[in-house]
Model the fold of this input.
Amino acid sequence: MTPRKPVTDWATDWDHLDPRWQEDPFPIWDELRRSCPIAHTERYQGAYLPTRYEDVRAIANDSTHFSSRRVIVREVRPEPIPSPPITSDPPHHKPYKQMLLPPFTAEAMTRLEPKARAICNELIDKFIADGSCDVAQQYTRHIPVKVIAHMLGVPETDSDLFIRWIHQILELGITDDVVLMQAVREMAGYFAGHIAERRDNPERRNRPKDDLISQLLEARIDGELLDDQHLNGMLRLLLIAGIDTTWSGIGAALWHLARTPADRDRLIAEPALMPTAIEEFLRAFSPVTMAREVVEDTEIGGCPIKAGNMVLLSFPAANRDPAMFPDADKVIIDRKENRHSAFGLGIHRCVGSNLARLEMTVAVEEWLKRIPRFTLAGDVAWSEGTVRGPRQLPINFSS
Ligand code: HEM
Done:
């Protein structure tokens, strides 16, 4: 593959695949917010980058000019692949979204909590005697995979497959549409098998519908069952959205605590701070950046926006805007006001936020109970593209 042309001017030629962005995007966004709050690039067939909270909010709330039919900024623009509700605009969006809400209520999450805690402890059991581990590979990666596999009703043992597809769709697929389409086809085949198994097996059909695949198979919009393309798209979305997002959120929280003993010791001494600390980790290290396609010319924050471009909707940059968050660049685990946008803004706000919060809380709590002292033991590798989090996070806890 030819190496990417390095960025020379972030205001007119930004590139979210530039290694400097992957390593440490915060100074880039801070500078743009001061000098050019809506940057543009000719890369990716033309795309804008708003960095102020207000502008990100305005775009997320305007589906007339900014469509969700494409939600990732890619080199090529293949025909949109429906994964409702995330790729749907009004009026189609609402019925799909409503279908997904009941399994993710706060009450449903309370029932999941013992399972989530057991998963964390079983993982810690495997490496605690070693005195060190790669937290991203041996701990944070497995928690969301196991939970969402359990909810969907697919084998946890397929997790390597899930992680590969996500890497192909959200990272490699930004520049390689062959890899992207291969992963989409493989996922479609995988879910088609699980759907057929439920449809064709009367014994299974009559069992309580306790998994998400079975529930979606029976769901209706205007009295009609979902067609296979939309059903498959929803399942693909749930699997993708449920894994590396939370993997990244837990990883960034533990990365911060490994580098900041004062916060770590305070959380152990004052466990009641955990909910505000989790919100602060979500704000400061927001993992998810989505996109919109501009479908009509408009204007945002005084800047003309041309149809045909994409917009990189950086919730992470919005969350570092000092006009919205005092000391935005500091991690303050008892921050009082924190209306962050890590889970999105507007109609597409995250369906899985209760689940993500549960997994992050449980993962950090169980870790601190069993491994209260720990430090970074080497280089951290961050993912690139749509979801940002540590993919290699060596930690030492031997002393
Ligand atoms: C820390 C973890 C997570 C973060 C930061 C996160 C973030 C987001 C964001 C920013 C959006 C808005 C997308 C947009 O505006 O285009 C979103 C939507 C969504 N998320 Fe999450 N998410 C997380 C975990 C999860 C989990 C565990 C699930 C469950 C499977 C999930 C399911 C979804 C779905 C289905 C949507 C689409 C909602 C819609 O289009 O109306 N997410 N998420």
